[in-house]
């Protein structure tokens, strides 16, 4: 059997083997670099996916807790049977992220303290809220108490440093005194947040919420003959004299107010604060009003009027015009007001405004209509005082 031999030159075999090794090492290196590149891309993709997943996991809880709802409200303010308009209304949507501020201030003696409260109270509350950390009830109670104390100090201090017309050229005080210490104002303030409703009251204005169809007062009028207030005034050495109703020293018909430095320490600016957790599906609306309304209209009647307006407006869906259409441009601020300030007509007309959210436009118009009807009802029932009403819709949008 013959052998088959294959002869390969020595030089050629070594050279071919070296070339094959070099090609193999290059290919292996390329494969390793490709694998490494894919691994880096995969790791970065996994990290990005993990980061996005964590963000998505965090965002639903934060939006659930701090979902920003647009402010939806209606407001009227009428001089009524008084000679001068001494009420002031403050509407400040988004004065803090996700929080809306509403306030009604009923002045007495003159309007400048109520006006100062309307211009400054929300700024003070925002400043105090930013300096606090948590969002619990204790925090908001402290915020409101400090805010009312600061507002009172500003109201008293500004007048004690001023001299008549130089300090307040638009002031309507009958006695232009260097120290105008006989002027004050009540204050009822509401902060509508994503989780809580905070109400602070000082004086005889009032806040009422409609929850589950029931009218629930969120404040108690500070009248001098209220048992705890009477005891406090007498303990401080004061007296309550019944002269056309209970009055501190026969003068002031309320036991708490901002200003009124001549009646301190019997009349104090300390607010009573209530913090409620919002309940979706139960909270319907909030009413803030001066005593010009509450002296002649009960809580239940006021809530019934507002609920009727909301229901009828939802049924009509724009079929008929609302009472705001009969107001002149000067009397009505209309919808979509950026500042939220309420223009007051001192000649006895009413000023009205409504929230500007288009998806819930019929509800906002219903709030404005309800505020106007409540004001008309108070005047029809012979209310002798200025009447200011704010109706805030507390219904949330359904979340899907």
UniProtKB/TrEMBL annotation:
It catalyses: O-phospho-L-threonyl-[protein] + H2O = L-threonyl-[protein] + phosphate; O-phospho-L-seryl-[protein] + H2O = L-seryl-[protein] + phosphate. Its EC number is 3.1.3.16. Its cofactor is Mn(2+); Mg(2+). Residues 59-68 have a biased composition (Acidic residues). Residues 332-356 have a biased composition (Low complexity). Pfam families: PP2C (PF00481). It is an enzyme of class 3 (hydrolase). Residues 72-394 form the PPM-type phosphatase domain. Residues 40-58 have a biased composition (Basic and acidic residues). SMART domains: PP2Cc. One of its GO terms (molecular function) is protein serine/threonine phosphatase activity. SUPFAM superfamilies: PP2C-like. Keywords: Hydrolase, Magnesium, Manganese, Metal-binding, Protein phosphatase. GO terms for cellular component: nucleus. Residues 40-70, 314-363 are annotated as: Disordered. GO terms for biological process: regulation of intracellular signal transduction. Belongs to the PP2C family. PANTHER family: PROTEIN PHOSPHATASE (PTHR47992). This is protein-serine/threonine phosphatase. It comes from Hordeum vulgare subsp. vulgare.
């Amino acid at each position: 059997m013959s052998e088959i031999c294959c002869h390969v030159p020595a030089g050629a075999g070594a050279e071919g083997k070296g070339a094959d090794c070099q090609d193999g090492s290059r290919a292996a290196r390329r494969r390793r670099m490709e694998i490494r590149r894919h691994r880096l891309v995969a790791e970065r993709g996994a990290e990005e996916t993990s980061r996005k997943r964590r963000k998505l996991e965090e965002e639903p809880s934060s939006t659930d807790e701090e979902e920003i709802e647009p402010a939806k409200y209606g407001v009227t303010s009428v001089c009524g049977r008084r000679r001068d308009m001494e009420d002031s209304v403050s509407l400040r949507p988004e004065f803090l992220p996700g929080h809306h501020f509403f306030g009604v201030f009923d002045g007495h003696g003159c309007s400048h303290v109520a006006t100062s409260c309307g211009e400054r109270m929300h700024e003070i509350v925002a400043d105090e809220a930013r300096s606090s950390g948590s969002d619990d009830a204790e925090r908001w109670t402290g915020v409101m108490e400090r805010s009312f104390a600061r507002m009172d100090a500003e109201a008293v201090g500004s007048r004690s440093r001023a001299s008549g017309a130089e300090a307040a050229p638009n002031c309507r005080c009958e006695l232009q005194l260097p120290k105008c210490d006989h002027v004050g104002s009540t204050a009822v303030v509401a902060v509508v947040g994503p989780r809580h409703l905070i109400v602070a009251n000082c004086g005889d204005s009032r806040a009422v919420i409609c929850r589950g169809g029931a009218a629930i007062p969120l404040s108690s009028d500070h009248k001098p003959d209220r048992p705890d207030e009477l005891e406090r005034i007498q303990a401080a050495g004061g007296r309550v004299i019944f002269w056309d109703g209970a009055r501190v020293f026969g003068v002031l018909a309320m036991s708490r107010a901002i200003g009124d430095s001549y009646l301190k320490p019997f009349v104090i600016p300390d607010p009573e604060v209530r913090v409620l957790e919002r309940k979706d599906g139960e909270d319907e609306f909030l009413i803030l009003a001066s005593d010009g309304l509450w002296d002649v209209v009960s809580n239940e009647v006021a809530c019934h009027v507002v609920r009727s307006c909301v229901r009828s407006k939802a049924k009509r869906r724009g079929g008929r015009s609302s009472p705001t259409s009969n107001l002149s441009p000067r009397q009505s601020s209309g919808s979509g007001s950026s500042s939220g300030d309420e223009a007051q007509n001192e000649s006895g007309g009413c000023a009205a405004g409504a929230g500007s959210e288009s998806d819930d436009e019929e509800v906002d118009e219903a709030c404005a209509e309800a505020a106007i009807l409540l004001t008309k009802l108070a005047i029809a029932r012979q209310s002798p005082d200025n009447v200011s009403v704010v109706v805030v819709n507390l219904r949330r949008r359904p979340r899907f």
